[in-house]
Amino acid sequence: MPFQRIVVINGPNLNMLGKREPGIYGARTLADIEAALRAQAADRVALTFRQSNSEGELVTWLQEAGLAGDGVILNAGAYTHTSIALADAIKAGGARVVEVHLSNVHAREAFRHHSYLSPVAVGVIAGFGDRSYHLALEALLTLPENPKS
Ligand code: DQA
């Protein structure tokens, strides 16, 4: 596993989880998800958990994670579908990112079908509710040191 640390970065409106459209996004809060991820990470890897509604802050965190060599689990919310700046930040810092979504964005409105982030992500996990984050963590924890191996 190539990471000392994994940073979980959540974008706009994900602070509202639990209250926000629970039929789509589930009943768990972001704090619930953080606690469950910390239990999963246990002593296998250090975990940092962040959320912002501001695109610029997300850009800075993605740059920093890349430069530090940290793995990233990223749910960029609606910025997934709009933000060239986030894609550029991933490329600029060289972060290895798993893009996650609680909902299956491909089964929803057409404007959610395109992601600026998928082309610069290691992989994408969508549609498994809060389990999307756990699957992403497992994917990063089992990523080969040498991505080509
Ligand atoms: C989301 C899907 C996005 O389309 C939406 O804007 C979100 C959440 C998800 O986790 O399913 O805010 O990223």
Automatic annotation (TrEMBL):
It holds the Pfam family DHquinase_II. It catalyses: 3-dehydroquinate = 3-dehydroshikimate + H2O. GO terms for molecular function: 3-dehydroquinate dehydratase activity. Substrate binds at N75, H81, D88, L102, S103, R112. InterPro entries: DHquinase_II, DHquinase_II_CS, DHquinase_II_sf. The record marks R20 as: Transition state stabilizer. One of its GO terms (biological process) is chorismate biosynthetic process. CDD domains: DHQase_II (cd00466). The active site is at Y25 (proton acceptor), H101 (proton donor). Its EC number is 4.2.1.10. Pathway: Metabolic intermediate biosynthesis; chorismate biosynthesis; chorismate from D-erythrose 4-phosphate and phosphoenolpyruvate: step 3/7. Keywords: Amino-acid biosynthesis, Aromatic amino acid biosynthesis, Lyase. It is an enzyme of class 4 (lyase). It comes from the Bacteria. NCBIfam families: aroQ, PRK05395.1-2, PRK05395.1-3, PRK05395.1-4. PANTHER family: CATABOLIC 3-DEHYDROQUINASE (PTHR21272:SF3). Catalyzes a trans-dehydration via an enolate intermediate. Belongs to the type-II 3-dehydroquinase family. Homododecamer. This is 3-dehydroquinate dehydratase. It comes from Aureimonas frigidaquae.
